[in-house]
């Protein structure tokens, strides 16, 4: 109860300092991204947008106090099952229930630092996607090798290797 009250007070304080047109009802995307950056050090724009979409359950482009508390509950204290579902939703860019090779590429492309000496950094990212898919496939028993990961496959892979939870970019806060 005390933690929820603190989250509500934080929400109200952040909304009070905002000049957004959504301030009466909650956070818009920019306010939310600013809060993620300040509180958790997140810097990846694609990840922060995906986290926003995951928190915004009713798709009204605004995070209400209820969405804020429920989202942070999973974000900060979620069970492994809740965090697996949350990460999968963040990575499933088109919401079709699969993480495709293209979605992996987009997530990894934005989360990796490009080396200035690389002639084609996208080639390195494609290689990394192949490595991740091979790791997932060996963990998943991915018989069809279609380059897509279903939620069930993702869940099994993460349970077998917890480091895969954030295989496509950091979308959870670190321990501190």
From TrEMBL:
Domain EF-hand: where?
43-78, 79-114, 140-164
Q: Which CDD domains match?
A: EFh
Care to name a GO molecular-function term for this sequence? Answer: calcium ion binding
Q: Name one Pfam family in it.
A: EF-hand_7
Q: Which SMART domains match?
A: EFh (SM00054)
The record's keywords, sorted A to Z, are: Calcium, Metal-binding, Repeat
Recorded protein name is EF-hand calcium-binding domain-containing protein 1
């Amino acid at each position: 109860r005390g933690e929820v009250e603190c989250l509500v007070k934080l929400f109200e304080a952040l909304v009070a300092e905002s000049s957004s047109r959504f301030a009466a009802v909650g956070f818009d995307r920019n306010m939310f991204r600013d809060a993620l950056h300040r509180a958790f050090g997140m810097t990846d724009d694609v990840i922060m947008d995906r986290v926003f979409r995951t928190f915004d359950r009713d798709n009204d482009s605004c995070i209400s106090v209820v969405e804020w508390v429920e989202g942070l509950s999973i974000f900060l204290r979620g069970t492994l099952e809740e965090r697996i579902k949350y990460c999968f939703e963040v990575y499933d860019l088109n919401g079709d229930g699969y993480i495709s090779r293209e979605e992996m590429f987009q997530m990894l492309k934005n989360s990796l630092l490009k080396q200035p000496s690389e002639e084609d950094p996208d080639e390195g990212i494609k290689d990394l996607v192949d490595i991740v898919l091979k790791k997932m496939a060996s963990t998943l028993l991915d018989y069809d090798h279609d380059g897509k990961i279903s939620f069930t496959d993702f869940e099994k892979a993460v349970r077998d290797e917890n480091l895969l939870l954030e295989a496509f970019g950091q979308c959870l806060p670190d321990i501190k």
